## 1
Amino acid sequence: MDTHAGSNQKVGFTPWCPLFITAMMEKLKVVMVVIEKIRKNGKDVPRRILHSIKVGLALTLISIFYYVKPLFHGLGSSSMWAVLTVVVVMEYTVGGTLSKGLNRAFATLLAGALGLGAHQLATLAGDKGEPILLSIFVFMLAAMATFSRFVPKIKARYDYGVTIFILTFSLVAVSSYRVEDLISLAHQRLSTIAIGVATCLGTSTFVFPVWAGEELHDLVALNLDNLACFFEGLGEDYFGKKMAGKNLEGKSFLHSHKSVLNSKATEDFLANFARWEPGHGRFSFRHPWKQYLKIGVTIRHCACSIEALNTFLSTAQMTDLAYATDPEFVEMVQDACGAMCLETGKALGELAYAIREMKWPSSARKHLAKAMDAAATVKSWVPTKGASWPEVLVFATTASLLS
Amino acid sequence: MDTHAGSNQKVGFTPWCPLFITAMMEKLKVVMVVIEKIRKNGKDVPRRILHSIKVGLALTLISIFYYVKPLFHGLGSSSMWAVLTVVVVMEYTVGGTLSKGLNRAFATLLAGALGLGAHQLATLAGDKGEPILLSIFVFMLAAMATFSRFVPKIKARYDYGVTIFILTFSLVAVSSYRVEDLISLAHQRLSTIAIGVATCLGTSTFVFPVWAGEELHDLVALNLDNLACFFEGLGEDYFGKKMAGKNLEGKSFLHSHKSVLNSKATEDFLANFARWEPGHGRFSFRHPWKQYLKIGVTIRHCACSIEALNTFLSTAQMTDLAYATDPEFVEMVQDACGAMCLETGKALGELAYAIREMKWPSSARKHLAKAMDAAATVKSWVPTKGASWPEVLVFATTASLLS
């Protein structure tokens, strides 16, 4: 992505601009990359500092409940649960906080009610039978709830809720043996948790919110940009005219797809949180987040091909296949491959831009058509020309991987 | 992996066995796959049930502290913290429980001490200044600790510890404003948490333990097996003699590498937990778990190439390049490619076996050498033979991706 903006302009200039302008452009490109990196980090670091401040703020707000006497006497010592809730529920994104907060609130409600029911049942068994019956209930419920966590869908969405469910049920059921006024205890716990969740949600939604949906949106666009960067880099530096040595070592574009390969976990995570978020900015409540995951799969598929192509290119360089037995033909294939790469890169860049701006990618189809044309051209040349085998193989493999 | 054992034997038989034996073998293979799947699930489900029972057991054990009077009076109502600890700390693997338990214990100790110190400092500020000073402390510490969670290494290993650190510090500092006997409260909390952690560790280590290290070991071997399965399947079903149509649709081996591609998160996770585990079975305490991650990277790299090769093969099938202009040559290349695939598959299978049994992979080198020989043969044929271009291209691309 880093070199994206620069490279697009340069393609048009290269044929006629004199050497010193090329050198200037090269320097400018390096500066652009550095600026882009600082901008990227500079965008992340303040947000992280802001998040840290938000957590501190929410905790300080909640501790006021404890310091102020009238509030304290209303809730008793269980206002500690509010502090606990804030620490555990507060997440980086709004969706994360919402997901955890709702999980916590509903799981507490459900488990509290079940716990009270278990207590009522157990008291029927008499003084001796009560702890035994309570133990059996706790054992059964904990075991069943734990087993349900192995179901992938529950694991992904309600894992935290199940933990809180087991926790609350055990606490209520076990403590019901000694605590007299169980209803008021349950009431206090519920209201403190509600206060804690409300504080978290307020802080995370209204103080510089970070939306999981927007993060996912940006991540998918960035991944597309990374692929575009690879193709443009390859088209320019490997198939381009000015590169004689074909030495790709140390080129940054060769690694631009690496981060894409391992992005699945983050995408799943963000999509899962985004589902909980209300409408915000350009995204409505039921924005089709699953579509981003589908795009993600396709992007990773492409990144895989790039990885294979990469390996192939570096192997081809090392074994140094006999080039240039027919320079004219080599140049033709090279030009076509270069065009393929550049046009594919442009099309991908266009798609990334379209996703980012939520517009119809009008010119991407044009670029793709050009890339397909170039691919067809390479394929049509192959059987007719009488060039030597190894060079055609190199290009043909590259071509088939690209197309 | 499923078809691994069966395919190894069949290769030798195919040339001479009559049709009905082949059909029988095919049926046997399907049965083997089904049995293997049941065995695999059958291995997982009882372990999951066992884990659920273990959680229930640990919770029941800890609730005894509450039911039995002498124990209850020793610890007071804070024995509830023991229940909470068990629910939160208990993980599927021993390493996970250890990691969470130690994180919880040390974070509580450290934050408790700091909280007491903050309380001592705040009391110096007088009755009015105390809550203000306490709020400032809580704010600062929570913000700093939250920011530290963005450091990838801390996130990976101590995320839970940092949460507990913020939690305990806030609880101790905030409640110090109203609770008189803070030392005894801290003492109670610490001992209940210690009891909770000890119960979890005891249950998870001594009752049918699941070791994260062993899971990682098995996962890496399984991933290698999956790759081996792909190569053997390709060698047999695509390059093999009996398959005339080259129709690969619906073949299970084509998808065997899919799970490998997304295994990074699980591997990182398991390696992180394995680091905490004591020596067990064939693994010592400081077993080089990082090496598994390196093998994992290489395996995923290979899976990526397979993915690209897969795409290429299905495209090649669809466009239906003009085959068989020189049947003899096609057969030669096909045989060589088949040999390459089969030998690579055998070598990978051998490596998986070697990892599983922790033995030196003595015959893998032999198989790999054969595969390299076959690859070299294909390469040496290419420039001399006068076959038509498309077919050579297909095989050459395949060959270069394989080698």
## 2
Amino acid sequence: MAAVSSSDFAPPPVWVEEAARSMEKFARDHGALGTRVVLITSGGTKVPLESRTVRFLDNFSSGRRGSASAEYFVQAGYAVIFLHRHRSMYPYSRRYSNLNWMDALTLGPQSSGEQVQVDRSLVPGIVGILQEYRAMKESGRLLPVEFNTLSDYLHLLQAAAQALSPLGSNAMFYLAAAVSDFYIPASEMPEHKIQSSSGPLQLTMKMVPKMLSPLVKDWAPKAFVISFKLETDPSILIERARKALATYQHQVVIANVLDSRRSYVVVVTNTTESRLSVSEEEDRLGVEIEEKIIKDLASRHTNFLECQ
Amino acid sequence: MAAVSSSDFAPPPVWVEEAARSMEKFARDHGALGTRVVLITSGGTKVPLESRTVRFLDNFSSGRRGSASAEYFVQAGYAVIFLHRHRSMYPYSRRYSNLNWMDALTLGPQSSGEQVQVDRSLVPGIVGILQEYRAMKESGRLLPVEFNTLSDYLHLLQAAAQALSPLGSNAMFYLAAAVSDFYIPASEMPEHKIQSSSGPLQLTMKMVPKMLSPLVKDWAPKAFVISFKLETDPSILIERARKALATYQHQVVIANVLDSRRSYVVVVTNTTESRLSVSEEEDRLGVEIEEKIIKDLASRHTNFLECQ
């Protein structure tokens, strides 16, 4: 378990320890009820270039897939640890992520004591979505945990894996976050803002240790583990997914291409390749591909449990 | 004006041309009324590392300073072009940037036809702030324009400068955006996602041309121009601010240190250094340093106009 505690990364801050305890309690409580628990990771990681950070490397990810998946996992009966990038999309509120709420609120008549109301013509479906959000909160089956930097993420992933390990095969990992492959070790990072007057910037970034390896081997060896493979070049997609399965020995890779990721994915296992897609007609009706992905995975998880 | 149109950057997309026309009309209309017009830039720029972008370099900036400043400039009688990073903080709604609106909304009684209301205990001051937001919108004195990448930003800055140039000294530039100093030229950028299996990442980034130079010399030579200097090392702050004034020959540098930027800045001109700060007592009362900065700058702008 030395991978993350290496001196290359900042030591875990106190709030990580607190989050670790919350995740342990959450897993224990839901595990005791026989509920399956999934860890969803969502959003991109921030990789600082300076220790007092002005500049950082980031990965393209709005957190749309992870936050949508959280909704469908809760609906499918899972308890969800939602490990997400600070300010990335969040279950249910993601549906209004382009809305400026200042535009959507109106002042009611004075007689009502100046109620502030939502203009429902500007916020379609708000009543139903608010009810679903409330139901999710009241069920107690969503535990949100935030990260910002790559270092936060790595510490929290390890803590989450340790929290879920006692659940054995009832635990699922759904690793949808866009985690940086590269970083600058703490020991090689300049303290202060890099001065532009020093000329062109030369950066040498080390490769981030692949956490999937200790996760599958040591941290939660009985769990059902899904990773994601996002490429921009469709021609190398399936080959890269197969290579990841061979290397890490986990159960499923969801393979997708940047441009079509909202309408088409391939669910790759050691022996199968299943294509899932959302047609234009379904898209118009509001069907999301995450609904199909989660249905597929929940069923595979059931088979996985039966084979243990 | 060749700086931005160089082949190092993507050519301006169609929406930039549209934004340019909106800015021209806005400047012309307000200029005709004798209103001073300020261009505020706000938020960080995204610098893609791949042309189908998965990874990018970013600058730390929530857009808090720019969005707060926009409010105080409107209050001071200015018309404001608010050139800001997509999803960065926005005037007024910034005050609720940590709020999940799903938590703040409640369903009213069935008899009222299921009104959705704001729980005002969770959203302090909402009535007053909503009124100020409405007043700002109705005044027509805020034109929001969005950017995402460094390339968007550079094209839009040039377009804004050309739009404001006819206003002469009535135009102000308040350049609070955290603009990257480095980029990878379009011609040297890989098309596809950089493969982590290729080993450690070596990046060589060119220096971004300093737009302040053509802005002051050619694009809007009569305008009142304010740039920002953010450092993490206080010992080099004033020297760096003075150097910028000497190099670009503009009017004001607002110098600030990362850790204390919300409570302390130095307004540096060729001949003066004025310290502005917010005391702990003022902070408790909700006083923001941007209110003091804008009051100071509006008065300097008046003097500047009288000296022309």
